[in-house]
Each structure stands twice: as C-alpha cells, then as structure tokens.
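Exercise 7. Predict the joint structure of the components listed below.
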Amino acid sequence: MTAPGIHTEEFQVNMGPHHPSTHGVCRFILTMDGEVIIKAEPVIGYLHRALEKICENRTYQQCIPVLDRFEYCTSMSCNEAFALAAEKLGGLEVPERAEYLRVIMLELNRIASHLIWFGTTSLDLGAITPFLYGFREREDILDLFEMTCGQRLTYNYIRVGGVAKDIPPEFIPKCKEFLDKFDAKVDDYERVLTENPIFIVRNKDIGVLTPEMAIAYAVSGPSLRASGVKFDLRKDDPYSIYDRFNFNIPVTHNGDCYDRYLIRIAEMRESARIVRQAIEQIPEGEIAAKVSMNYKPPEGEVYSRIENSRGEMGVYIQSPGKEKKPLRVKLRGGSYNQLQVMPELVKGHKIADVVAIMASLDIILPEVDR
Amino acid sequence: MDRDELIKHLLEKFPEKIELLETGRAEPFFLLKNKDDLVAFCESIKTDENLDIDYLCNIGAVDTGERFEVVYDVASVKKHIRFDFKLRFEYEGAEIDSVQKVWPAANWYEREMWELYGINIRDHGNLKRFLLPDDWDQGHPMRKNWDAPDFVRMPEVE
Amino acid sequence: MKKLIDAVKNLVIGLLTTGKHLGRHAVTLQYPKEKWEMPERSRGIVVLLSDEETGELNCTVCMLCARACPSYAIRIEYEKDEKKKRHLKDFIVDYNVCCFCGLCEDVCNFAAIKLAPKYEFSTLDKSDLIWHTDKLQEMGRDVPYEKPVRKKAVAKPAVKPAAKPITSETENKSTAGPEKTTEDKPVEKPETKSETEQPETKTPDKPEANVPVEIENKDENDKPAGEQI
Amino acid sequence: MEITGIFKYLYEQLVATGLSQTWVEIISLVVAAVIVFGFLAVMALFLVWWERKVSGHIQQRFGPMMTGWHGWRQTIADAVKLLQKEDITPSTVDRPVFYWAPIICFVAAFVAYVTIPFGKGLIVSDLNIGILFIIAITTFTIISLLMAGWGSNNKYALLGGMRSAAQVVSYEVPMVVAVLAVVLFAGSMSMVDIVQSQAKIYQWYIFRLPFGPIAFIIYIIAATAETNRTPFDIPEAEQELVAGFNIEYSGMKFAMFFLAEFVNMFTVSAIAATLFLGGWQGPWLPSWMWFLIKSLALVFVFMWFRWTYPRLRVDQLMEFSWKFLLPVAFANLILAGWMKYSGWFNW
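Solution:
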C-alpha cells in the first residue's frame, strides 16, 4: 500500500517480553510495514517451570498444589482436571456433596476468571475504569473462596477423591447475596462497554477466526463458540454432575473480537445461574472419599478434560501401578492453541489490534509455558 | 456412537494395525503397532465420515524408563467421539512423522516433544527451541535418565 | 443518521454509569490504618501449636508433615533416645519455599501444626524467612485450635490401633515391619466425626458442624485404600 | 471584589517611582508573566491531584489519601521526586533535539496565556488577533512531540511521535473551523470583545442555536484530541507503545512533559469557557471566579472522558476527523454565516 517507486522496507518491532499488555511474559516479533503487521512470531518459554517434571516425583495429593500454579486464574479447574483423572485411574467414587461443592467452586472460579479477562480487555483498549469494577466483584468471590479453603488464588481445595473442607455455615447466605447483586453489576459493565461505539469500532471484524481454522488448531472454549461451533464440554462430554443443571451455551457466528466479548459476558451470567441452582440442590453428607496420602492407583493411563474459562483443560496421567507417584503427567491448556493461532489472526491488522486480539482470546502464559 | 461401537468400528477398520489396550481407564485406548503408518492412520480416521476426528486434543510423549511412547488424544467435535491411541518405539533412532498435515494444531505439540524428549519429527517445518532458554545445552530434560549439574533432586524424607 | 444518534446515546449512557459511581462510597481499605482481618480458616503462616497448660509442643515428631509437604519446606531434626522415642531437636520451616498449601495441617493427627490467619511476616533478608522452633512456637501461642478428641480404645482389633500416642507409636512400628514397605508408614487414623463406628459424644459447646475432615490415611492392614477395583 | 484595582494601584506606584516609560512597561510585563506562571504552576499541580481524586472516586476507591488531608500534598511530593530523579540522556539520542523538545512543549503551553482573559481587566495583553495567536502557539506542541519521538531514536518513540503529529494536525483543522464560526459571530478576534459580545446568559455562544452547540461539541472533541487525552491518547498509549514519545525521558524532562500536558488541558478548557460559556460573565461572583468555575467544569468533563472511554485506533481516529468532523464543521460554519447574514437569532 506504499506509493510505487518509494523504497520502504519492513522493520521489526519487539512487542514484549516486558510489555504491559501481554498477559504473563510473552514476546511477539512483529515484522511491520508502517503500522500494518505482515508477520507475527510469538516467542514463549519465559514462564517454563517444568510443571510436568515436578509432578513426576510428587504423590497424587502433592501434585494438586503444584497444579494450582499451572493456570492461576482458574486454579480450581486445574485441581478438578487432575482429580478427575486420578479418580478415573483408581475408580474412586466421589460423594454427592463433594460433587456439588466442586461445581459451585468451579463456576465461581469461572466468573472470577472472566472478570479478570473483562478487566484486562477493557484496560488493553484504554478504558481503565471497567478494570476496577470487574475486580471489585472478583474480590467478593475471593472472599467466598478464602472463607472455605483459606487461599485467594491457589486454592488446593479440590482433592483426589473429594474436597478438602466443608463450606462454613455463613458461606451460602454470602454467596446468595453476591449472586443477587451480580446480575445488576453485569448490566453495569454492559452499559459502560458493550454498546460503546468506540469499543465496537475497536473490536468489530478484528481477528476473525473461521470455524474450520478454529477446529483445525484445536481452539476451544469461548473463542471456539464465538466462531459458531456449539461445543461446550459441560454439555457435549459431561463430566461430574453438570447434567443436573439447566444452563444454555451462548454461541455467536462471526468469530471476531466483539463476539468473543459477548460470549464471555453471557457466560458469566450462565455460571451465576448454575451456582444458584447448585446452592439450592446441595445435599448433606460426606465431603471426601477415603484416599490416603500415599494413594497408589492401579496401572493405567487416562486423559480427562474439563471446560474451564479458557477452553478445554486436559490432564493425561499414566500410572505405573505400584508407585505412589505418577509416571507421566501431561497438561493441556486452552491458551496453548489460541496462541498458536494468533499469528494467522494478526496478519494485516495494526499494532493496536494485536493487543485487542490477544485480550479477546484471553491468553495467559502459564498455561502455554507450563 | 458409544464406547463399544467405537471399539468395534475401529478394530474392523484397522484389523492388524491397532489393538485395544486394557490399561485405558476412561475412553478406549489403542496401540498403533507400527509407527510408520501413523500419518495414514490419522488421515483415515479424519476422513472416515462416521468418525470425523477433526479435533486433536493433545499429543504427549512418555518415557517409561525402557522405551518411548507417544500418546495422541483425539476427538470429534461433531460426533462427540473421543479416544486415544499411542505408539511405542525404542530410545535410539526415535523418529516419527509429523501429523501437521492432518491437524495443524500438532505443530507446537511436536515441537515441544522434540525439545523436551529428543524425539526427532520428520518433515515438521520449524523444529526450533521455544520452551527452554536458547542457550540450553544440557540435553532433553523430560527424559527419566536425565541429569544435569544444577538439577536439585528432591530429598527423600524417610 | 440513526446510527449516529444511538452512538451518541450510548456514549452518554457510558458517561452516566461511570458518573453515578462518583457519589458511591469507596470499597477499598486504607491499609496501614484499617487492617483486613482474615477469615479464621485462611492459610497464612505455618505455626507450631503448643498445649496451653503445659506449654510444650504438641508435635510428636511423626514426620508426616515433612513427608506431605510438596515443596519440602519442612525439615525436622530429632534424636532417638533409648526407648526409640523421638525427641524434637529443631523444627525448621523455610518460607522461601513454602507454598501455603495446607497439606501439613491436613495430615497432622496431633493438631501440632496449623496455618494461622496472619499475613504480615515479610522480612528484608531472605535468611530471616527460615524459621526455627522458638519463632514458630511463639507465633503459634495465640492461635486457637481444636484439640483432636482422643478415641477410646476400640474393641475392633485389627482396624484401629490403640488410642494413646505413645503405645500407638511403637505398635505401628511393629505392625508396619513385616509386610509393608518401610517408606509406606501406616499412620494412626485421626478422629473424623462422620466415620467412627460408635457415635462420638461431641462436646456440646462446639457449634461448628464437623471437625475439618481431610483426606486422612486409613490403612486397613488387609485392603489398602487404592487397591479396590 | 474585582482585583483589577490592585494592578492599577501597583501600576500607578510604578509610574510614581519616576522610571522611564519603557522600564515601567518591562517591569509590569515581567511581573504579569511571573504571576501568570505562578498561577499556572499551582493550577497544574492542583489539576494533577484533582485528576487522581476524580479517577479514584469514579472507580470507587479513594485516590491519594496519605500525604496530608485527602492527599493534597501528593503532587508536590511527586514533583520533588521527579526533580531529584536522575535525568538520563541515552547515548544513541540526537542530543540537541532530545534536549529542546520538552522545553518547547513547556514554553508553548505557557505562552498561550498571553491573551486569555482571566477576569474583567485581568489580561496580560489584549491583542486584537487573540484567538488566532493562541491557536498558532498551541500547534507548537506538535513540533515538540515530533522532536521527542524522533529524537530519542527508539522504535516505540518514533511510532508515538508520528502518530501524535498526524493526530494533532488532523484535529487542528476542525477546531479552527469551529472557532471561526464563533469569531464570525462575535465580529472580532480579540478575546475581550468575544467575551463582551456574550454579556447575557442567553447570548452565550453555546446557546446560539443551531450552530452554537454543534460548534461547542466539535471544539470539545478536537480539544481532547489536541491534548492527547482518551479517547484519542494514541501517542502515549501505554498498552501498545509502552509510553509513546516520552519513553526515553526521565526526571526533570519527563516532569516538563507531564506538567505541559495538564497546562494544555487547562488552556483548552479556558479557551472553550471564554468562547462558548461567556468567559468571566456571571451574575454575583467576581469575574475571575466565574472564569475558574467554568474552566474547571470543562476540565472535569475531560477527566470524565478519560476514565470512561476506550481508545480509538490511529486510522479510525484519522478517519473520524477527516471524514466526519471536518465536513460537519464546514457545514456549521456556512450555517453560522447564513445566520449572521440573515440576522436570524441575532439578538
């Protein structure tokens, strides 16, 4: 698009690794022609902690706190994925109440993670205030978590065979109070951002992800549903007791940043609905099966996957049988594939759009680097 | 298409190529006997109309102490099918074909397998180091027999 | 033209929503003046608990917490006296490494170690983060905890070792010898409300529904937990 | 209690001391300059503090609270901190350009106050081309941004500098056209005449339907772009360009850029108040207080914009200015001309 005869050559810009809008530490080498990007190459590995190597010499219960750090925005779902895999290995039965507690915690954690996403998306596009509003709601959820399991970010709450502690008596009233005011707050967010013409212009038709490319690159979660593929593990490959709650899966069809935004806002409301139903139906009873610290599952291997806020989170465990430590733990995070598809989405856009696309794909780096 | 139909269908389709493993705890787990017909197997399960495996969940390499295993967890978005299969091959001359042509998502998984395990991937495209630091010269860390000067082993509490 | 109208309308709505927050009271705490008091279950620093009357530590050096810690932050030095009874020499918790997961508190059967709801312990020098017995005990003085209710000696022979810690210590060692591998130490089962055979008489003043039930190590000699398929 | 009397009294004292006329002029101008500079320096510090409080309360938090009652000493503390920060000049930098950029930016921000009437008699020098002088001076900031961006020899700074130049130039034109509509109606470019022509409240140019409000809105949009504030703060877009043109600056130079931005904000709202909201005209309060209230109200609107809206992309910003704002501004000018000629609404 440069005038003929004028000699221009592309120049390379390093976006990251110390860059305010790469969530975690990631670097993009952008070859640019003026403002337009020709090629983007992500450079990762800054946050590689070899979690899989660590898990190989930890017992099953000790792996849970290690896996909290796998994806710290929704560490409940990391615990759940690992616990599901370990329970399938050993054929353990999780009591009813533990299942309900898990679903409540998972969905609250999904709302908290979407609120982080909502805050950082608006921050990356320049609106600073929604970030604060999003985090104000997230604080209420973190208080609920701290009341039950004692930590605000790395919970170590869902254990192999059940749940660590029962919810204190004042958990349910506080949770109800949060749920009642949460919908009004989401309307507030919508009023500030959703129909805002500047926000729409910055997000419409940016980073369009076609359904074929999404499935080819195994993108999952809200980004996949934004491209028109109705695929949610909670409904299509139901795990735990998700089939007992009625909630619907938001799907939109043109797969750009704005649709991914709409989907996540709708998902927040759906999760709130699930938590409300789970609170009403929670039975009394046991909260954990009898699983020893030196839990030794029989020989075997399993890949279990759950739907967390960034897509499909899968844990593959191979256990040698007599050992109390897993032979191999392979972790699969949703952001890994979304970052893989980023260079295709970014071609032809401007540097400001790289930020918008990365925020809309909700990529965080610990999941990518492990 | 539930679990037994899937097993029956696959065993008929590839009688001598795969066998059902009983170690699988959840979805059916197959062993692909010969690692050379990997790409052919992947292409056929992708194009098979009532399987339609178009979604690659995960590729994980495993070092079981005496040999390598590479586990492919695949699924179909449209048909809600999910199953896994794996290859077994010895340490020396560990080399497999890249399945990028079938599922582009495999690119980074194979690159990571090459970097951490040292399993060479034929015609992969850009086998470059991306998880470990660029000047890493202490071998392939995820192998069981791996040791390095500054690798602190966890003390075994008696 | 209509697009312009509702664009301006939305811009103004956006302004009004942020504007209406102007009057509202701030939700933040002014930290040094107003402190955030943590719920009683929150996992702050690891402390050693001691008996109120006697003042000496509850810890009986069973090494379970050291084994349970995923990041190997707990190191215990002890020496054996003539009756093979272990005496605690030094209990070290390295906070540079500790990940505050609470596994040590869950595993301990003698309520000797607990994560207290305190969070102000940052130091200027890394080496100050390695705490020894005296600092741990002194920090744990005022931390309330439930004493694990001792079970009466139970008729059922094989399943539950006798209640008193001293004898159970030696008895465990003897049963552990023959068929178990040494590193898989059978551990005395802590008291859990829901699981004991005969109904436990709960002290009435404790309103809280249940003692925090954790994944405890139930090791029947005949059928280890994980083996049933 | 008009304070113009004090200056008259001082002026007579000066003349009474028997110095020659030129000396009297020089001294009185120097005194006026020092007063204006002092007032603006304090105003800039106040605006920085006020912005942090306003943004705090919009986001339901307190804003600075520790330093003094509601943190009023916060900006002074910041200024002192910036003063003793090390003023690094990177070696690869084009030294003279890098050195002069903040100075030009700072000076340009202050010189604009020569013809702004603070009150009835409170004007440094009432040029008959007042508004034209101000607009000419404020365009200097473009040069300083370009110099800072290009001079600091850093990719991000270069991008930031280029963007800011493109943005300010493209929003200068609609601003001038909007101001032209008012000047056309007021009949003279001198700021005092413009204010006098808005004696009564219904004579304020903002209420001169239909061209008044349109010109006011165009002016406000162009002004936010002029002072690089959201939704047009592309040059120092933290998320994209890390810090735009002032990446390489630190210490005193950065403080100059920072204060210049806030002084610019006050300049632009002062001009808007004078042109559209009838400068110092107001019923009971003294004239300079009216001027302050109106300007600070407009500054509050700018702050409100900043904490509500996301940021536009560069090309969208250009497109908005050239394809939408400018045509509307021209149409508005023609409408104002027709209104003036036909005497309609000309009370």
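Discussion. The mean pLDDT of chain B is 85.
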